[in-house]
User: Fold this.
Amino acid sequence: MDVMHTAIEYLKGVGPERSRLLKEELNIQTYQDLLHFFPNRYIDRSKFYPINQLPNTSAEFQIKGIVTSIDFIKQKRGKRMVANFQDETGNMQLVWFRGYQWIKEGLKINQPYVIFGRINWFNGQASMPHPEMELESVFKQGLKAVFYPIYRSTEKLINKGVSQRVVQKLVANLLEKEPDLSETLPPYLLNHFKLISKKEALHQVHYPDNQNTLARAQARLKFEEFFYMQLQLILKNHQRKQKIKGHSFAEVGPVFKDFFKNYLPFTLTGAQKRVIKEIRTDLGSGRQMNRLLQGDVGSGKTIVALLSMLIAIDNDFQASLVAPTEILAQQHFQSLSTLLKGTDVQCALLTGSSTKKERIVIHEELEKGSLAILIGTHAIFEEKVQFKNLGLAIIDEQHRFGVAQRSKLWHKNIIPPHVLVMTATPIPRTLAMSIYGDLDSSVIDSLPPGRKPIKTLHRFDNNRLNVFAFIKEQIKLGRQVYIVYPLIQESETLDYKDLMDGYQSISRDFPKPKYQISIVHGKMKSDDKAYEMERFVKGKTQIMIATTVIEVGVNVSNASVMVIESAERFGLSQLHQLRGRVGRGSDQSYCILMSGSKLSEEGKTRLQTMVKTNDGFEIAEVDLRLRGPGNLMGTQQSGVLELKIADVIKDSSLLKVARDTAQQIIKKDPDFTGQEHQVIKRTLSSLKIDSNIWNFIS
Ligand code: ADP
Ligand code: MG
Assistant:
């Protein structure tokens, strides 16, 4: 067996207890894992920080000085040991909360020590709890390199004595063993991109000679990481296209043509036409379509979905449209029914609240094939729901669906249906490239004509009366208004109270019978919700007070004002989604972001971004920068983003190079038969394939 796969337990200095800790805390199980556990940063061991210049942040520092005295201080439970530590510039405290008896015995007063650890500040006084410390004489002997690596650690590791020093030593031990660090990239790539060898890179990334060698080591390792990640993604898509057959929708027939000629209520935009053409090509190719359709709120994805479904029907297949919430499913059902009025195409709605009677009919007609389009929530995924011949599955708002659920749709037919995933949350290009690899994607990048860009304003709470006056003006003009309150799971009760308080105060300012108000929130029964929605949709109420349940789907073109309360508590993409609820008609629409006067830097950036732009892609890029890729995609999809050294944002140009390289190689030599590609073949097969990658693409 390859030495690199030796269990970490057998490395000098580890043993069973530490190996368990390393595994639990850092997921380090083998020699290989440890060598690929890259430092976060480095400290220059030849430099010491003067105490009087320690910056007022909680970070790790190396300091040289002497211990002048030791004290014990009583505290609530037990006591702590405090040593006064000083250099020529000032003094600070070293603190121990446990193990002090043993430490005290070893401590030498008035002898030069080198200490290292995290600085805490309290009342202007710096202290370092549980410092790592060595007598200067010992430190000098042990100094093998100038730059020392600092690794990610956890509270538990530190408490159990697995300090930075310990990890540094383990890595050094391993590197000293001169393990066989075989090359993982073809020599011609190393040459072409002037990359250093794997072996050199691993040595230099842990114990760099200087800044320059470190930079070259990092570049090499980042390239490798991106390259193999892209290779796997692209390969997967490539293989899917080769191996997985798809239904061939050969013709655009009478159903499509009839609708297009007689029922289409508007002219398609150029972007819509282009996207439909892309979908049409996929559907006719004989291979399974897996396409992501991105289009900002209001860009007109629904009609694209419908036209695609009509192509399926023309080829004697059924189609389904799945939405993440009941409200959204209902909305889709309503808009599609309206669009289909007068045609022979049958569609039905299936959700968690469909009655047993309704279900029986739907199940029967689905199996018979007389029902062409089924719209619904995840209820569609249930085993009992069997299609005669499902050919196209459309999924709206993909972020909300789990992978497992999506793959269930596959089993609704022997040959998997074509899949079109629609999302109104644009995925920043950098991110789309890195996690979707070569997934086909279509973008509706322009809005239907005649829309006026929404005006977005930020107002502080003390301006509320002006905002109310403005709302009254708009209502006088015959428009409708949304007022949205945040709902964040952790403080649901509190939010609920906010909502109810808001409702009461708005009811006072907008008295009946002149004003009618709808209210919708998560604690209501779905019948009641539907009733309240209905009243607003029909124009019977002018104000809709809601939590984020209206985030997706509600389509009231007469609504021209969106007021978002505590806007600083919403994420950017949510704010953008909410704003998209207005601006659907030809009237000038407004989005008013209400907030308290105290805002965090991030909160400020979010609100400013909203005021500045209506472009979903631009907003998504800011969001990505603020929150990082993992958070943006949700845990489900961040799996692929757990990169060890590369960063999809900071290293995006390198990502592009790696991706292009991977693409070229797969195009030229998809099975890696060339002699020069044996190393790729070997490396790929030794990678722990992250099942995440496979799953969420299909
Ligand atoms: P979304 O992409 O958010 O799902 P919708 O499909 O709901 O957007 O479309 C938003 C609104 O724009 C709908 O009222 C729809 O009828 C209208 N619409 C869509 N496409 C066009 C078009 N080409 N011309 C005019 N109106 C359109
Ligand atoms: Mg929509």
Notes: The first strand starts at residue 41 and ends at 44. Residues 211-243 form the longest helix (33 residues).
